[in-house]
Design a protein that fits this description.
Layout: H1 7-15, H2 20-36, E1 85-86, E2 93-97, E3 102-109, E4 114-121, E5 127-134, E6 138-145, E7 151-156, E8 161-171, E9 175-182, E10 200-202
Parallel strand pairs: 1-3
Antiparallel strand pairs: 2-9, 3-8, 4-7, 4-9, 5-6, 5-8, 6-10
Biased composition (Gly residues): 201-212
Protein name: Beta-glucanase related protein, contains cellulose binding domain Type IV
Region (Disordered): 182-212
């Protein structure tokens, strides 16, 4: 379904919290389930077993500290959870996704804080993955984006610490984008989330981590 990756991409895959191969498997499961539910409709993905297996990956929280300089423009390398770019909440960050690329960003929030991942991109076609992780790079939420309109992923932090968001070129979606963590003070003119998107997939949906 997708082209084979070169050795450098293979190496980066092995370092990522949720590697690109696994992500593409999840994405395939979402696409199949989405087709059964009307493909681009607003229905949630069908819950299926897909075979990620294993326990969530837990990393040393100190290695994910966002105490360094906060950025407004993506800085490479940021292709794994452990070298995620530190960003401030309520600040828009611009980036460029390379073909088959992966970009990571880290931010600190307190337990109980509700926030939106606000994502906007230039490409009008192709599929971009936006994946949210909690402390220790533990998977929380996945959204596939197939339009050039702004989308939001809403979640609430279950514990304090550094959270991360991963931006993935799933299928021909390389190009410029912006991402922000909105805790209620983001200065932006929001665009309604389109109904013709791929929808969301939570833990256990599309097979990530077994059956919910």
């Amino acid at each position: 379904m997708f082209e084979s990756m070169n050795p450098e991409n293979q190496r980066r895959d092995d370092e990522a919290g949720l590697d690109r191969r696994t992500y593409l498997q999840i994405a395939g499961g979402v696409a199949i389930a989405g087709g059964a539910a009307g493909c681009l409709g607003s229905a949630r993905a069908k819950e299926v077993q897909y075979g990620y297996g294993g326990d969530p990956m837990v990393l040393d929280a100190e290695s994910l500290s966002t105490d360094s300089v906060d950025l407004t423009v993506e800085s490479e390398p940021n292709d794994t959870c452990t070298n995620a770019n530190p960003i401030a909440t309520d600040t828009e960050v611009s980036g460029t996704l390379e073909p088959a690329g992966v970009d990571w960003f880290g931010f600190d929030v307190e337990s109980g804080t509700s926030f939106d991942i606000v994502f906007d991109r230039v490409p009008e076609t192709g599929v971009t993955g936006v994946v949210v992780y909690g402390p220790g790079c533990e998977y929380q939420q996945l959204r596939q984006v197939g339009t050039d309109r702004q989308v939001r992923l809403t979640t609430t932090a279950s514990e304090s610490g550094t959270h991360t968001v991963e931006i993935v070129d799933v299928n021909d979606a390389d190009g410029d984008y912006t991402v922000a963590i909105d805790t209620g003070s983001l200065d932006t003119d929001p665009t309604p989330t389109p109904e013709d998107d791929y929808g969301e997939a939570g833990y256990g949906e599309a097979g990530y981590g077994g059956v919910a």
